[in-house]
Amino acid sequence: MTWLIATIGWVGAVSLLIAYLLLLRRTTGAHSHLYLSLNFLGSACLAVSTSEAHAWPSAAVNLIWLALGVAPLVRAWVDLHARRQCACTGADTDPP
Which domain holds residue 32? Predict the structure, then answer.
């Protein structure tokens, strides 16, 4: 079980680092579904890992980070879905 928690922690750390690197290299934007998804995944994994290790301050920060990212993440995925729907229907206008 220890290896599983460690793996989850490493997935979280790598996810956050990749998100930050993509942002710094301007490969993605701070409001993109990719950046927000990587942040969500990273903070969720690190919250699990740090909670299991009883590192409560770190777990709290990751849970707060996770909570703050939910609304922007949902908006980004809804916007992406709307853009794909417009592209499929051939609409020329951007969704609201």
Answer: 2-69
